[in-house]
């Protein structure tokens, strides 16, 4: 199995990058956040990878952090969740936010992903809650996160833009988080 690749970034687009490793170009599917981060780098890049073997293809999925790879592997271990769906779920929010949603059994947070219905969200929660080893008590934090996203959406930002801005906000409280996110969005 190919578990890590380091090479020169030669192309990126859509939801993948091409990494040249010793003269061989590997096409690696990545999350939008990883794609943006790699787009800012020049030269050498290193990705942790997961190889998915199918009858008609060998697909590589790449991540910067071990936590991201671990969650991805847990998600694809659930019947009915393929690698593309797992990437979509992980693109919804950071690993910690997803762990909080799963541990607090907040299926409505997970159903915001295109293609993830209520039953699939319940299945994710059921199968991963114990594996993640997280306790409950995060519902208030998730409510605050959802409220902040809705506030930014009502101001004309897309859900993706809102979530991306909120990922790097350190402030607490919905109002403070929205203000700081607006400052960040205004500086782009």
Record the SSE blueprint.
Elements: E1 4-13, E2 16-21, E3 24-29, H1 32-39, E4 44-53, E5 58-63, H2 66-76, H3 83-92, H4 95-103, H5 107-110, H6 118-132, H7 139-154, H8 159-167, H9 174-186
Parallel strand pairs: 3-5
Antiparallel strand pairs: 1-2, 1-4, 2-3, 4-5
Helix pairs in contact: 2-3, 4-6, 7-8, 7-9, 8-9
CATH level 4 superfamily of the largest domain: Nucleic acid-binding proteins
Structural class, by secondary structure, is: alpha+beta
Number of helices: 9
CATH class of the largest domain: Mainly Beta
In total, the number of strands is 5
Quaternary structure of the protein: single chain
Q: Roughly how much helix do the residues carry, as a percent range?
A: 40-55%
How far the N terminus sits from the C terminus, by CA atoms, comes to 40 Å
Rg calc: 17 Å
List unreliable stretches of 5+ residues: 134-138
CATH topology of the largest domain: OB fold (Dihydrolipoamide Acetyltransferase, E2P)
CATH architecture heading of the largest domain: Beta Barrel
Percent strand equals 15-25%
| Tally of structural domains | 3
Q: Report the principal-axis shape.
A: globular
Would you mind describing this structure in some detail?
The chain has 188 residues and is an alpha+beta fold. The protein has three domains: 4-63, Nucleic acid-binding proteins (OB fold (Dihydrolipoamide Acetyltransferase, E2P)); 84-132, 5' to 3' exonuclease, C-terminal subdomain (DNA polymerase, domain 1, Orthogonal Bundle); 139-186, Helicase, Ruva Protein, domain 3. Helices cover 51% and strands 20% of the residues. The chain is built from nine helices and five strands, in the order E-E-E-H-E-E-H-H-H-H-H-H-H-H. The protein has a five-stranded mixed barrel. Strand 4 and strand 5 form a beta hairpin. The longest helix is centred in the last third of the chain and has 16 residues, at 139-154.
């Amino acid at each position: 199995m190919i578990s890590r690749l380091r090479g020169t970034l030669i192309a990126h687009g859509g939801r993948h990058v091409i990494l040249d490793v010793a003269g061989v170009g590997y096409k690696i599917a990545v999350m939008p956040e990883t794609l943006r981060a790699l787009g800012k780098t020049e030269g050498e890049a290193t990705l942790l990878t997961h190889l998915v073997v199918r009858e008609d293809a060998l697909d590589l999925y790449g991540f910067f952090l071990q936590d991201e790879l671990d969650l991805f592997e847990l998600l694809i271990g659930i019947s009915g969740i393929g690698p593309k769906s797992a990437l979509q779920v992980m693109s919804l929010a950071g690993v910690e936010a997803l762990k909080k949603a799963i541990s607090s059994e907040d299926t409505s947070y997970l159903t915001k992903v295109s293609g993830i219905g209520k039953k699939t969200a319940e299945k994710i929660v059921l199968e991963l809650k114990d594996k993640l080893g997280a306790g409950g008590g995060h519902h208030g934090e998730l409510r605050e996160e959802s409220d902040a996203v809705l506030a930014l959406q009502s101001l004309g930002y897309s859900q993706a833009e809102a979530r991306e801005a909120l990922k790097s906000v350190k402030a607490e409280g919905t109002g403070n988080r929205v203000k700081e996110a607006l400052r960040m969005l205004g500086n782009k």
